[in-house]
Amino acid sequence: MPKKPMRPCRHPGCPRLTENGVYCEEHRKLYERESAGKRGYDNKWRAARTRFLRHHPLCAECMRQGKLTPATVVDHIVPHRRDARLFWDETNWQPLCKSCHDRKTGRGE
């Protein structure tokens, strides 16, 4: 079976070719992300998330627009950036639907 052709590294300006078509060895570390568990999203978080969504079942952003949409994500209003106090502060949480959460995350908020 023939191999897939190599592709350029996706890092801007990098001329290296890669087998996986994403990043070369040098730039891969720049774009890697730790697992969700290592970032704090463990069993304790999943239980808290479930409890929060049970009490706040509708997307806060959709409700501001007059729509009723089930919330599926607990969003940190202010990014916690590994600050445990901010991570667990429920006043910093808001229920969002996946669409609203993806839109907010895509804007870099």
Textual characterization of the structure:
By secondary structure, the protein is of the alpha+beta class. It has two domains: 32 residues, no CATH class; 64 residues, no CATH class. It is 36% helix and 11% strand. The strands form two sheets. The chain has a two-stranded antiparallel ribbon. A two-stranded antiparallel ribbon has the order 3-4. Strand 1 and strand 2 form a beta hairpin. The radius of gyration is 19 Å and the shape is elongated.
Whole-number count of domains: 2
Number of DSSP helices? 5
Number of β-strand runs: 4
Question: What is the H/E order?
Answer: EEHHHEHEH
Spatial sequence of strands, sheet with the most strands: 1-2
Sum up the structure in keywords.
109 residues, alpha+beta, two-stranded antiparallel ribbon, two-stranded antiparallel sheet, 5 helices, 4 strands
